């Protein structure tokens, strides 16, 4: 990844990696970079959080409205789409301002019966870099939103890391 050994403590990074891997199941390069710069990275530290979700769907179009926590500010948005997930994603894109290309979207059932969970897994592209997101809920629209917000929070952290790296470069010049 191009970092010098004096820029991080390998033992601490490895311990944090194991905790994150246990929680998420998968750890990607951008997760490792975030661990290096943000000690004790937790889901509670996510910048974007879904506070409210309302969906109306029929045979013609779907409408979604959301309230999204963006740091200390809550923003509301509504959108129509080809389906409830499309409408939700349009809301999230508008609020966050990220220009994301969705490369892959998978929805699978976890468990059986009425209380079974739906798991949404996505791969998204942002500025040429792939990001992975996962969401799990009894509501597949909510699971889909969680997956996209997982991606967007990873992008947000990556942007913060890039800013830190640029500041360090400026300081050394």
Automatic annotation (TrEMBL):
The keyword Cell inner membrane does not apply. GO terms for biological process: L-leucine biosynthetic process. InterPro entries: 2-isopropylmalate_synth_dimer, LeuA_allosteric_dom_sf. SUPFAM superfamilies: 2-isopropylmalate synthase LeuA, allosteric (dimerisation) domain (SSF110921). One of its GO terms (molecular function) is 2-isopropylmalate synthase activity. The keyword Acyltransferase applies. Its EC number is 2.3.3.13. Keywords: Acyltransferase, Manganese, Transferase. It comes from the Bacteria. Residues 26-156 form the 2-isopropylmalate synthase LeuA allosteric (dimerisation) domain. This is 2-isopropylmalate synthase. It comes from Vibrio ishigakensis. The lineage of its organism: Bacteria, Pseudomonadati, Pseudomonadota, Gammaproteobacteria, Vibrionales.
């Amino acid at each position: 990844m191009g970092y010098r050994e004096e820029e991080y403590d390998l033992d601490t990074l490895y311990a944090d990696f194991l905790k994150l891997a246990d929680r998420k199941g998968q750890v990607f390069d951008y997760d490792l970079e975030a661990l290096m710069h943000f000690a004790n990275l937790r889901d509670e530290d996510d910048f974007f959080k879904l506070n409210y979700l309302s969906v109306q769907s029929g045979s013609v179009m779907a409408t979604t409205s959301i309230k999204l926590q963006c740091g200390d500010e809550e923003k509301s948005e509504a959108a129509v789409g080809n389906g409830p997930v499309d409408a939700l994603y349009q809301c999230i894109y508008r609020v966050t301002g990220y220009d994301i290309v969705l490369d892959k979207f998978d929805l699978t059932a976890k468990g059986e019966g009425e209380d079974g969970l739906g798991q949404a897994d996505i791969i998204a592209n942002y500025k040429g870099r792939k990001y992975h997101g996962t969401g799990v809920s009894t509501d597949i629209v909510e699971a889909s939103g969680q997956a996209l917000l997982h991606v967007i929070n990873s992008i947000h952290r990556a942007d913060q890391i890039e800013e830190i790296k640029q500041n360090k470069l400026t300081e050394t010049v």
